[in-house]
Amino acid sequence: MSIAETEIEKLENGDCNENNVFFQALEEVIRSIAPLLESDPKYKKYAVLERLVVPDRVIKFKVTWFDDNQNVKVNTGYRVQFNNSLGPYKGGLRFHPSVNEGILKFLGFEQILKNALTGLPIGGAKGGSDFDPKGKSDFEVMKFCAAFMTALHQYIGPRIDIPAGDIGVGGREIGFLFGEYKKITLKYDGVLTGKPFMFGGSLMRPEATGYGAIYFTEKMLEIENKEPLDGKICTVSGAGNVALHAIEKLLQIGAIPVTCTDSQGMIYDERGLDILLLKDLKLEKRASLEAYLKTHPDAKYIPISEYPEGGHAVWNIPCYAAFPCATQNELTEIDAKNLIANGCVSVTEGANMPSTPEAIELFLSQKICFAPAKAANAGGVAVSEFEMSQNASMQKWSFEKVDKKLKITMRRICTSVALTAKDYGVEGNYVDGANIAGFKKVADAMIAEGI
Ligand code: NDP
Ligand code: 2IT
Known about the structure:
Layout: H1 3-13, H2 21-39, H3 42-45, H4 48-52, E1 57-66, E2 72-83, E3 89-95, H5 101-117, E4 124-129, H6 138-152, E5 161-164, H7 171-185, H8 205-223, E6 233-237, H9 241-252, E7 256-257, E8 259-261, E9 265-268, H10 275-284, H11 292-295, E10 300-303, E11 321-324, H12 333-341, E12 346-348, H13 357-365, E13 369-371, H14 373-376, H15 379-392, H16 399-423, H17 430-448
The structure holds NADPH dihydro-nicotinamide-adenine-dinucleotide phosphate and (2Z)-2-iminopentanedioic acid (2IT).
């Protein structure tokens, strides 16, 4: 049995079984790096893989707070500090009722390789809580964030672990978390990224993940000799930070994004989406997407109850390029078949692991340009690192400077992933390219730092 197969079997028989998203993320990476493990004995000698798949530590804590009716509420908080070989632990916080240790381990593991691909000095981590910010007042969110930070503050620091946002955590939550950290520690540290601009946030951090995914796609289409995005129909899922900024950048470059989704349904506006309205509805008013119809009655709204069996309405809409930007496993094998049948040429993962393994296999076998999450959505964490640099040097960079650095970073990641794939005999396979390139950086650092 190969080193990779032995490790997968060990994981399957351990506490990480096949139905688990953490196992899904690990299995993909281990299969990609199998040739590297066989060809270079140092990885086995230093047990790099066995060490890499286990987080350095998982911090789990109780978060108690009062709602607006003075009821005591109890949630669970986590921080998975996965690997700090390349730099301090870095990664977002997710507040969503589905959050559990398995989901945060998958996200933390992906973050290690993603952060390595940026070429910046950051390790991998993820955290969050099963707290649901939806329907909560600003005061309730503030009280929850304060209680969460009370438990977390002793484990983080600007050279230790620097959390940021993810699903359910944006500028509002980061602001409340930062305020509480400052109050408890008396330190004005850049201990979180994604802060509002007025107290140390980087310009363009909100836009960075979505814009970065489009910059990556432009470069990938260039390398693969495909037509550029301008004038092309694009489908996007999600209606949060990543999706809306991907849509905004698509509109800026002359593409025609026609869909977005939230947890309740999909909007299809074949003339191209109204981004200002969407930002107001989803980022300001935190309303349902259905409200889009009040301003644009010609658009279509499909609630999730009417989605096709085993699939999602958004991937039935014919498009040139697709951008899943909502959540994990939101693009299934059935969805992939529909996209391909309708002529889709390119798929870019804005969300973390949005495509199932079966969907990815189809994309790769059908030679669809496929940009995997850990490469394509690295723009968010890259600009987070730019925010850390600005905080450390007490500077504020212009929007243009950050945008230029983001574009260079995304194009560089794309090129290095494409070249790595070519070097390892899997030209055009950006999944293997990203996994091998990211793994090598982390693994070589782990070996150099000793066990
Ligand atoms: P937001 O909370 O801003 O938006 C999430 C969007 O996805 C919302 O429209 C939400 O719907 C929808 N959504 C969330 N969970 C589900 C679900 N289970 N089923 C259907 N729809 C769902 O999060 P982000 O935009 O920040 O994150 C989106 C994805 O991008 C995640 O996978 C995240 O890990 C990834 N990512 C985020 C980065 C960042 O910088 N923020 C960086 C890199 C990756 P509703 O409005 O109804 O809640
Ligand atoms: O998945 C991700 O890369 C993020 N949620 C952003 C992490 C960060 O530290 O900016």
